[in-house]
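Minutes, project huddle
Topic: does the predicted pose make sense with 2-amino-3-ketobutyric acid bound?
PN asked that the exact inputs be recorded in the minutes so nobody has to dig through chat later. Recorded below.
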Amino acid sequence: MGKTGKKRILVTGSLGQIGSELAFALSERYGAGNLITSDIRDDDGGKLDGSGRFVKLDVLSQESFAAVVKKEKIDVIYHLAALLSAVAEAEPQKAWLINMEGLYNALEISRMHGCSLFVPSSIGAFGPDTPLDNTPQDTVMRPHSMYGVTKVSGELLCDYYNLRYGIDTRGVRYPGIISHGTLPGGGTTDYAVEIYYKAVLDKKYVCYLDPDTSLDMMYMPDAIKAAIDLMEADEAGLKHRNAFNVTAMHFTPVEIAAEIGRHIPEFEIAFDNDPVRQRIADSWPNYMDDSAAREEWGWNPEYDLRSMTADMLKVLGEKKINGELDL
Ligand code: AKB
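Predicted holo structure (C-alpha cells), as shared on screen:
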C-alpha cells in the first residue's frame, strides 16, 4: 500500500494467533478508527477491545464480506482466515473450502473494490521434492498435505490477480510462529509454542515431533513486522509477490529444549511421535533462504532463539504468577 498510501484496513481471522496481535499493531500504526477487525466467531472475551471495530464475518459469504468492504470503504485487506496444517489434514474438504473459497472471495472483492491484499502463505507450500536445506525462493513446490495444496494454489491465484487485474497482492511464507498471546490452532509447528507453556507450568513437555526435526520459526513481533513492512514496501522494488520466504531462526525440539534448560535447569523433554504431523514436518524445509525478502523489501528479523526464549519465559512466568496461564 506504499508508505503514504491508503489506510482503511480490514483484518479477517482477527481472533487467531496472528490476527489478534496484528490488529493491535495496525491500530497503533494507522489509528483504531481506520481498522475493522473480523472473525467468524464472536469476540466474547473482548480480546480485540481497543484495536479497532469488530464485526462478525464469515469469509465464505462473498455478499457479507463485500458489504463490510464497501460500507467501511476498505483499502487494504489482511486476509488471515484459514485452517492450519494439522486440522486441514483431519478435514481436507473443509480446509479446501475455507482456505480457497475464502481467498477467492477476498480476491474478487479486492478486484471489485480496488483493495490491496495481504495473504499469508507458509512453509507448508513446500513438499518432499523441495530442496530442504537453504530452500530457495523459487523452487519445486509439490506439497502432499491439503494445507500445502491450498497454500500453493493460493500463491498462484494471488499472482494471477496481480498479473490479470493489477491487484496489489502480496504475501509471505510464514514459518512456525511463536507467541504468548493467542495459542495457535491445529498447526504442525505448534509444539514450539506449547513447549514454553509446559516448561513454565510443569517443567516438562512431551513433544509430538522427533528430536531432530528441524523447522524454520519466528517470534510474533517479527511476524507482524513482516506483514506490515511488506505491505508498506515500494511496489517498484518487488520482483516477487506471492509469496516471499521469510525466516528468523530454525531449530529442532532438542535445541529449543536445551535453550529453555538454560533458564529452567529441571526442564525435561520426552517424545511421543504423531505420524501425521511428523510426515508433514518432514516434508517442510529444514531452513529456508529468505534473501529475496531481504533484498526486495528489507526483511530483517530481530529475534533469534536465545532472545525469543528469554522473552517468552519472562512473559509466561508473569502470567503464571497472575494466574493467567493455561494450556
Ligand atoms: C502450521 O504448522 O500449520 C503453521 C504453518 C507453518 O503454516 N504454523
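Observations noted during the meeting:
- The radius of gyration is 19 Å.
- The domain at 9-176+218-245 is CATH 3.40.50.720 (Rossmann fold).
No decisions taken; revisit at the next huddle.
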